[in-house]
Specification:
The protein has 2 domains: 244 residues, Alkaline Phosphatase, subunit A; 135 residues, no CATH class. Helices cover 36% and strands 20% of the residues. The chain is built from 16 helices and 13 strands. The strands form 2 sheets. An 8-stranded mixed beta sheet has the order 9-8-10-1-11-12-2-13, with helices on both faces. Strands 3, 4, 5, 6 and 7 form a 5-stranded antiparallel beta sheet that branches. Helix 3 runs parallel beside helix 16, helix 5 crosses helix 11 and helix 13 packs antiparallel against helix 14. 50% of the residues are buried.
């Protein structure tokens, strides 16, 4: 048996008056997921444990079969693992976004959490030049993909490691002073952010971006900190060889910690323009030597953060056609039985422009069951709720998915 998990990050959402009371998932044209829905099991799963924020770190860890209550130490150290950053016992990794801040009426607001989805090439130069600007021995910045980077505090003081910090996508349009550490006047994190602004505002890349009508990366934002996690190896835990496909360091980092194969796909961006077909084909190829493949697609989450109905519908349709559809077509040629699990890691409602903790819909399809055309379901939050099937955790869902009947 082969197992395929397909995650459309943030795909679930709320009903919208602009869509006549439908969600973006209900509105999108998704014939492939609908077909699986009609011939499989559909229900809801609570992916965010009580007491945890509904972040992709927590929810994807659970959907890979690892209890966040037991294994979670923070988002950034997972990303650091994916990037090959060596963390010692007392080192703390922080997620470092390149962001756009807006000055308005003597206040500073979080305008864009991604600096206009700055390119990886531009961001790499900014991060490397910022390292030279600060020239610290005990604090270092590491370039990642697009706006997503890492800052490591070596031998980090406990008071810095324990600061309450906020994801920038949670505070879009809000004054940043309300979300800085309370002792901000004598705080190393606040000092880094303000000094970075001085440097970034003068950088030639940002001057060029402004001239081109693009948002500048005029600040950094630190959050999601933690120490190196220790996950039980996936093969030992489940008796299956696993692989992970994602453009996002966070997801790859969970796979690294779990000892899974990490498959890099050329042109995978973590945005609407990602290489969907490349991911789908890589998943099929991965099954030649792996029993389990976890495919994560970020685009629908990014569209939710942008508050774009049009982009989110398009992202869901791309996922259905260019991920689900391509995988199903390729599986026709295979002579092994397989199971597919399709879900979102969390909702990213258009109205909120950030994550929420409601349960998300899922489909489980088993190839040993013949397709029927007698049922016509539209994969959606509503249909999933009406099924009456509910899992109280992502771990519970994945264990059931991997259980042989």
């Amino acid at each position: 048996m082969k197992y395929i998990v397909l995650i459309a990050d943030g795909m679930a959402g709320w009903q919208l008056k602009e869509l006549d009371g439908k969600t973006t998932l209900e509105t999108a044209n998704t014939p492939n997921m609908n077909r699986l829905c009609a011939n499989g099991i559909i229900g809801l799963v609570k992916t965010t444990p009580d007491g945890f924020p509904p972040g992709s770190d927590v929810t994807n860890m659970a959907l890979m079969g690892y209890e966040p209550e037991k294994y979670y130490t923070g988002r950034a150290p997972l990303e650091a693992l994916s990037m090959g950053i060596d963390l010692k016992e007392n080192d703390v990794a922080f997620r470092c976004n390149l962001v756009t801040l807006l000055h308005y009426e003597q206040r500073v607001y979080m305008h864009d959490y991604s600096a206009g989805h700055i390119s990886t090439e531009e961001a790499k130069i900014l991060i490397e030049d910022m390292n030279n600007f600060f020239n610290f021995q005990d604090i270092k910045f590491f370039p990642g993909i697009s706006y997503r980077h890492i800052c490591v505090f070596y031998n980090c003081p406990e008071e810095v490691a324990n600061e309450k910090l906020y994801p920038p996508h949670d505070i879009i349009g809000k004054p940043i002073i309300e979300y800085l550490p309370k002792n901000w006047e004598n705080n190393i994190i606040v000092w880094l952010i303000t000094q970075a602004q001085t440097f970034l505002n003068q950088h030639e890349i940002n001057k060029k971006r402004i001239n081109e009508g693009k948002l500048p990366a005029n600040s950094i934002w630190l959050w999601g900190q933690g120490k190196k996690p220790e996950l039980e190896k996936f093969e030992k835990k489940f008796g299956l060889k696993g692989a992970v496909i994602s453009a996002v360091d966070l997801i790859r980092g969970i796979g690294v910690s779990a000892g899974m194969e990490i498959i890099n796909v050329k042109g995978a961006t973590g945005y609407l323009d990602t290489n969907y077909e490349g991911k789908a084909q890589s998943a099929i190829n991965a099954l030649n030597k792996n029993d389990f493949v976890y495919v994560h697609v970020e685009a629908s989450d990014e569209a939710g953060h942008e508050g774009s109905i049009e982009k989110k519908v398009k992202a869901i349709e791309f996922f259905d056609k260019r991920i689900v559809g391509v995988i199903l077509e390729n599986l026709k040629e295979k002579n092994f039985p397989y199971k597919i699990l399709i879900t979102a890691d969390h909702p990213t409602p258009i109205e909120k422009r950030t994550h929420t903790n409601e349960p998300v819909p899922f489909i489980i399809y088993d190839s040993r069951k013949k397709f029927s055309i007698s049922k016509n379901f539209n994969f959606s939050e509503k249909i999933a709720k009406e099924s009456g099937i509910f899992y109280n955790s992502g771990v519970e869902l994945i264990k059931n998915f991997l259980k042989e009947e």
